Amino acid sequence: MKFNLEDISKSPKRRQILKTALTFVTGLTTTSLLSFLIPNSPKKAQAIVVQRPNEFELKGQGTYIKYSILNQVPQLDYKTENTVTHFSGDQIGTLTTDIGTLVTVILSKPNSELGGNIVRFSFLLPTINLPIGNIETSIQTQGILTTEKTSGLIRRPIFGQFQSYETFTLNGTARYR
């Protein structure tokens, strides 16, 4: 089947559908996607509206994570057997990559004069679309504890590998609220 863009330009209805369907609202909110726009087809073009989850609850290897973005402010609760920590706003780093969004928080920092280890917790959030009406879905992803050696103000040279990693599977729920 061949697509002919000239057919679309001659049809005001198809042009409007194309304009509407190709308009995206970015972020973790509702997104409109064009599913089919096939000229000379008996099927009508349709836009599928989906919603992106804005709350995630994840568990794995003795770790519980609740991450949410409400009113464009990220919140993250990190709990283990020995630790309960809350992070908000700029304390949470995010990086959009080809394999999902990497979410990172700093769990501990050493004394800046003496050096020591910086411990970060990161996890990958895959891209998820929820059909309108479905408010949640199960997800599986990876958590990463990174320990980074630092030298502090003393500036002792550090030799070898600076970062070490512990990875583990996180299972849970992604939902739209």
Describe this structure in words.
This protein is mainly beta and 177 residues long. The protein is 9% helix and 52% strand. It has 2 helices and 12 strands. The strands form 2 sheets. Strands 6-5-4-3-12-11-9-8-7 form a 9-stranded antiparallel sheet, with no helix packed on it. A hairpin with a 2-residue loop joins strand 3 and strand 4. The two termini are 41 Å apart.
Write the layout of secondary structure elements.
Elements lengths: L4 H6 L1 H10 L9 E6 L9 E6 L3 E6 L2 E8 L2 E7 L4 E5 L4 E5 L2 E9 L7 E10 L4 E2 L4 E15 L12 E13 L2
User: Would you tell me the structural class of the helices and strands?
Assistant: mainly beta
**Average pLDDT over all residues:** 81
The oligomeric state is single chain
Q: What fraction, in percent, of the residue positions are helical?
A: under 10%
Overall spatial form: elongated
Intertermini distance: 41 Å
Cross-sheet strand order for the largest sheet: 6-5-4-3-12-11-9-8-7
Rg, rounded, reads 23 Å
Continuous helix count = 2
- Number of distinct beta strands: 12
Q: What are its keywords?
A:
2 helices, 177 residues, disordered N terminus
In short:
The chain is mainly beta and 177 residues long.
